[in-house]
From TrEMBL:
GO biological-process terms attached to the record: regulation of DNA-templated transcription
Record keywords, A-Z: DNA-binding, Transcription, Transcription regulation
Molecular-function annotations in GO: DNA binding
UniProt keyword annotation of Acyltransferase present: no
Gene3D superfamilies given in the database record: ACT-like. Chain A, domain 2, Met repressor-like
Keyword presence, DNA-binding: yes
Entry's family note: Belongs to the transcriptional regulatory CopG/NikR family.
Listed name of the protein: CopG family nickel-responsive transcriptional regulator
Extent of the signal sequence: none
Xref: Pfam families: NikR_C (PF08753), RHH_1 (PF01402)
Residues in Ribbon-helix-helix protein CopG domain copies: 1-41
The Transcription factor NikR nickel binding C-terminal domain, residue ranges: 52-124
InterPro entries: Acetolactate_synth/TF_NikR_C (IPR027271), ACT-like_dom_sf (IPR045865), Arc_rbn_hlx_hlx (IPR013321), CopG (IPR002145), CopG/NikR_regulator (IPR050192), Ribbon_hlx_hlx (IPR010985), TF_NikR_Ni-bd_C (IPR014864)
Length: 136
């Protein structure tokens, strides 16, 4: 199936350099792989149930969104254990460590991704070995 996309030139140039450096045979192949990775990440996020422990790492343009981000973080203080923040010029890198309902963590991820001034939101879930856990 053919499709068309609107992608800023600098992103497309970086994408082309990356797939060519990796030795892939075409941009189409690289796009298919990128889409598959996106689907896998989304499916993992959607498939979690029950209680979860996660780290959310995201970057954002500080002056455009800091007030709104603080508001969101206060709305999710029931699952946020701690945050870590680093400035780099106008951009910041932040990590939020969460524990609680997987659905609630998912809501937080989607709210963060909804901000235009947020570049990326990466999620890493703790995958405990349930066989080695003991009951209290």
């Amino acid at each position: 199936m053919r499709t068309s996309l609107n992608i800023p030139g600098e992103i497309l140039e970086s994408f082309d350099e990356t797939w060519q450096d990796e030795g892939l045979e075409s941009r189409s192949r690289a796009v298919r792989e990128a889409i598959q990775e996106y689907i896998e990440r989304h499916t993992t996020l959607e498939g979690l149930d029950g209680t979860a422990v996660a780290a959310l790492a995201f970057d954002y343009e500080h002056t455009l969104v800091i007030g709104d981000l603080h508001t969101v973080q206060h709305e999710f203080d029931d699952i946020i254990g701690t945050t870590q923040h680093m400035h780099h010029g106008e951009w910041c890198l932040e990590t939020i460590f969460c524990e609680g309902s997987a659905g609630r963590i998912r809501e937080l991820v989607y709210q963060l991704r909804d901000f235009d001034a947020v570049g990326r939101v990466n999620v890493m879930f703790l995958q405990p070995d349930h066989d080695n856990q003991t009951a209290d």
